[in-house]
């Protein structure tokens, strides 16, 4: 557990929109193979934090280190970083003009210039794993929200990332479809994928996360092993948050 | 007798003249449409720029063609410019200039609207997958924007074809002008002639514009999802 070199290190990460501070010096270390759930009320900066990690947001201070290399400088090739840090969003963000298979193949073929038959085989295997192999030639409009989201996960996995970021991927799904998507993520956790998961599904976080980060108003209020966080939260703010969620 | 006029339609070269007039109408419309589409796509993409100056300049250009009637533009360029700049432009060239400028302005608005109406997460997920900006436009944004552009573009093309009727006002001998000439010659002999000639012109416009309009409706429905 300890003693491992973290694959991702965040130091004093600061993000501002004009005068408004969204992230107020975030520190975090992520070890390889760890699953970290990021919890917190809406607007606490958790999504913004994820978006900073793959360069979708500009940061105003602090540093992000991937394998000990700083990402916060002018020479950073974000296109390469993004092939190592995959991301899935809340909106069903498949490209509607492409079939499922074309969606998955786009980046491996055009960005990574990989061999088509090799990528196709990998894509089919991944589709099989999420139970959607028979949908390879469908267009996104023919799929349900949960199916789209599973495809979006496959699409991100097919570029062979080392870390996956999940930004509230079940938040806009029909409740009946949440499970099928969470199952896929749980499966990834078992396989040892390093993941940062922003979620509102507390039971899911409890189940798959090794560690929980509780954020509020741009700060990390509490960071603890998942078990400990849910049974015995240390900060008052986290206790409040968990109480509200408990019916 | 109402149907005494119809015979004039088939007398001499009348029918041929009307069809040749229609050809002028279509020639002006189609050349202007092609120029408009090319310029409109370029200007439309430029107008998605974040630069305020670019936005304001092209917005001004678009509004000038929306606010000022096309007929006034035709008069201004046909009568005012030759008189003051010692430039002699034929009526058809003036028509092409005005229609191209107008069409490009409207097309650019369609193209710009289609691009900016694409959901932001299409851009973001392209980026998150490591696509470059040109790959993002080529594989993701332009194919989606094209679908959104085509139905309104066809509507605009129909509008441009219909608006060429104004060209009779600057003396382009297009289908309506030919019709008027035939009417003037035969009016005394056949008092119902204008009914037949204008009816025929009506029919010609309908035959050209109706299929276009149907086609765009069909595409709109097909691509609604």
TrEMBL record, chain A:
Protein name per UniProt:
Amino acid ABC transporter ATP-binding protein
- ABC transporter domain residues are 8-242
Q: Which family is annotated?
A: Belongs to the ABC transporter superfamily.
Pfam families, alphabetized: ABC_tran
Q: Please verify whether the record's keywords include Repeat.
A: no
Tell me which domain of life the UniProt entry assigns to the organism this sequence originates from: Bacteria
Q: Does the record bear Nucleotide-binding in its keywords? A: yes
The organism encoding this protein is: Ureibacillus endophyticus
Keywords, A to Z, come to: ATP-binding, Nucleotide-binding, Transport
Signal peptide boundaries: none
Automatic annotation (TrEMBL), chain B:
Q: Which residues belong to any copy of the ABC transmembrane type-1 domain?
A: 22-216
Q: Which example biological process does GO assign this protein?
A: amino acid transport
Q: Which UniProt keywords apply?
A: Cell membrane, Membrane, Transmembrane, Transmembrane helix, Transport
> Do you know which SUPFAM superfamilies this protein is assigned to?
MetI-like
* Subcellular location field: Cell membrane
CDD domains reported in the protein's UniProt record:
TM_PBP2
**Is Transport given among the entry's keywords?**
yes
Q: What is this protein called?
A: Amino acid ABC transporter permease
GO MF term list: transmembrane transporter activity
- Record organism: Ureibacillus endophyticus
- Stretches that traverse the bilayer: 20-46, 58-81, 87-105, 163-183, 195-213
> What is the membrane topology here?
Multi-pass membrane protein
Family annotation (Gene3D superfamilies): MetI-like
Which InterPro entries does this UniProt record tie to the protein? AA_ABC_transptr_permease_3TM, ArtM/GltK/GlnP/TcyL/YhdX-like, MetI-like, MetI-like_sf
Which family does the record assign?
Answer: Belongs to the binding-protein-dependent transport system permease family.
State a GO cellular component annotated for this protein: ATP-binding cassette (ABC) transporter complex
Keyword match Transferase: no
């Amino acid at each position: 557990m300890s003693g491992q070199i973290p694959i991702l290190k965040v130091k004093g990460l600061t993000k501002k929109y004009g005068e408004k501070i969204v992230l107020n010096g975030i520190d975090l270390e992520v070890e390889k193979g760890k699953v970290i759930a990021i919890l917190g009320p809406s607007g606490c900066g958790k999504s913004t934090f994820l978006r900073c990690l793959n360069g979708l947001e500009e940061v105003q201070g602090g540093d992000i280190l991937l394998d000990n290399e700083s990402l916060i400088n002018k020479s950073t090739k974000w296109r390469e970083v993004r092939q190592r840090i995959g991301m899935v969003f809340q909106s069903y963000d498949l490209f509607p003009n492409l079939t499922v298979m074309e969606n998955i193949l786009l980046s491996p073929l055009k960005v990574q210039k990989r061999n088509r038959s090799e990528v196709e085989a990998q894509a089919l295997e991944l589709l099989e794993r999420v139970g959607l192999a028979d949908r390879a030639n469908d267009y996104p409009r023919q799929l349900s929200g949960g199916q789209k989201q599973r495809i979006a996960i496959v699409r991100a996995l097919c570029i062979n990332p080392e870390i996956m970021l999940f930004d509230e991927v079940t938040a806009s799904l029909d409740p009946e479809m949440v499970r099928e998507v969470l199952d896929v993520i749980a499966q990834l956790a078992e396989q040892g994928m390093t993941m940062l998961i922003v979620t509102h599904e507390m039971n899911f976080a409890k189940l798959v996360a090794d560690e929980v980060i509780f954020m509020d108003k741009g700060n990390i209020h509490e960071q603890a092993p998942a078990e400990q966080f849910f049974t015995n939260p240390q900060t008052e703010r986290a206790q409040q948050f968990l109480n509200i969620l408990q019916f | 007798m109402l149907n005494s006029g119809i015979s004039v339609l088939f007398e001499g070269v009348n029918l041929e003249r009307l069809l040749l007039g229609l050809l002028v109408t279509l020639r002006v419309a189609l050349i202007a449409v092609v120029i408009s589409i090319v310029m409109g796509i370029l200007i439309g993409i430029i107008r998605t720029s974040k630069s305020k100056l670019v936005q304001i300049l092209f917005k001004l250009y678009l509004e000038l063609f929306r606010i000022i009637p096309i007929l006034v533009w035709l008069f201004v360029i046909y009568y005012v410019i030759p008189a003051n700049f010692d430039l002699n432009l034929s009526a058809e060239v003036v028509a092409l200039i005005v229609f191209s400028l107008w069409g490009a302005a409207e097309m650019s608005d369609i193209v710009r609207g289609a691009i900016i109406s694409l959901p932001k997460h299409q851009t973001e997920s392209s980026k998150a997958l490591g696509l470059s900006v040109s790959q993002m436009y080529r594989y993701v944004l332009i194919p989606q924007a094209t679908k959104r552009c085509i139905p309104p573009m066809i509507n605009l093309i129909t509008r441009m074809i219909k608006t060429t009727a104004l060209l009779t006002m600057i003396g382009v001998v297009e289908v309506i002008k030919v019709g008027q000439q035939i009417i003037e010659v035969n009016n005394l002999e056949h008092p119902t002639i204008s009914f037949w000639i204008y009816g025929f012109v009506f029919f010609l416009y309908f035959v050209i514009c109706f299929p276009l309009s149907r086609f765009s409706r069909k595409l709109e429905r097909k691509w609604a999802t």
